[in-house]
TrEMBL record:
Molecular-function GO terms, alphabetical: nucleotide binding
Span of domain GFO/IDH/MocA-like oxidoreductase: 156-216
Database matches in Pfam families: GFO_IDH_MocA (PF01408), GFO_IDH_MocA_C3 (PF22725)
Gfo/Idh/MocA-like oxidoreductase N-terminal domain sequence ranges: 2-118
Alphabetized PANTHER family for the sequence: BILIVERDIN REDUCTASE A (PTHR43377:SF1)
Stated name of the protein: Predicted dehydrogenase
Amino acid sequence: MLKVGVLGAGHLGKIHLRLLNESNYYELVGFYDPDEINAKKVSDEFGYTYFENINALIDAVDVVDIVTPTLSHFDCAKKAVKKGKHIFIEKPITNTLAEAEDLLRLVADQGVKGQVGHVERFNPAFLSVKDKIDTPMFIETHRLAEFNPRGTDVPVVLDLMIHDIDAILSVVDSDVKQINASGVSVISQSPDIANARIEFENGCVANLTSSRISLKNMRKSRFFQRDAYISVDFLEKKVEVVKMQDAPEKPGDFDMILQNAEGEKKRIYFENPDVHANNAILDELETFAEAINNNTEPVVTLEQGTKALRVALQIIASF
């Protein structure tokens, strides 16, 4: 088992602590949080070992799980990597692109592994259809959330939209050509609502909308490709797959047939992929352990996390 320590014992940090403590892949050594009052409260309530010194915790483990505010991601990761520790780091990978690129160099120099916590890659709905998403040419995403002060220290693009940016980049095999975006600050000092249009070199267009001041929660993505429409509800863990194929010469009584202007006839049919319930956070942590143990590439690499951050920052810059 890999010895692991957690940096940060806030809302998400406590979830990581619980899951790592239950995992068969890790031995939870303890955690560090600069808020001593909160740290002692968490330690007393759950029994996790609290380290008063960040370096002492890093020295005691094989893997450092960084669940701190974004502003401190790079400093925490740098301390761990320089001591030869593997790092799991929550999204976004770092606060700036320069920090992310420095981290990539540090990790390469030290020969350790890193993974970024883009948890939607492990969403069971997305997993059930990812292999069916083939050269999408139009993508539309809506990620709406009710207001929560937690996370408002960064723009909504880095707080929410980056989930969809990473998912899109994982299925579109093309470089970004152009980005146009707008953002509005309503409650926070940084934008709370954002819309971005990403054009790729291969002609694919992605239209992304994110809001953290909505009256209801929504996390939906729609992928349109040749002869297929795929809808993923990340919140409800549901999918819709609608496909078209050449219509048979003698359609059945219940076949749905469409005919285009050129006279081509297509039969519409539906697929219902199995969505297997899982704990996405536990899966991302345990697949990282497997990557370390088997010396394989993590599911969400630091390079991919950097790519998502680069696009996110380009969106913010275009406001």
